[in-house]
Amino acid sequence: xxxxxxxxxxxxxxxxxxxxxxxxxxxxxxxxxxxxxxxxxxxxxxxxxxxxxxxxxxxxxxxxxxxxxxxxxxxxxxxxxxxxxxxxxxxxxxxxxxxxxxxxxxxxxxxxxxxxxxxxxxxxxxxxxx
Length: 130
Fold this sequence. Notes:
Blueprint: E1 2-13, E2 17-18, E3 22-23, E4 29-37, E5 42-51, E6 63-64, E7 68-70, E8 82-83, E9 85-87, E10 93-99, E11 107-116, E12 119-129
Antiparallel strand pairs: 1-12, 2-11, 3-11, 4-10, 4-12, 5-6, 5-9, 5-11, 7-8, 7-10
């Protein structure tokens, strides 16, 4: 049976912020959600770092992840769009990316980068076989 777990990595911050590192080893699917509110100008970007370090590691070495699958519109003839980050553009709302399922990782951390203003939250969505 598959279960879904949601981690609040960053909760309603108003400045550029990097989350803690979260162990996600064994996950079958990992997604990331950027939520932006209280926008008047500028944009917010969410980026992800990953690590293959073991669960017993106290300070995993993190590497930028360029294997996020964008929620961009495309046609059936196009391949998936992989990106290093997702941006809110000049809007409030929710913005999704999924980690490429071929990319197996044990640790993740997220950064929200603010330009100008807004309230920013980031969530890690984890699907696991239980």
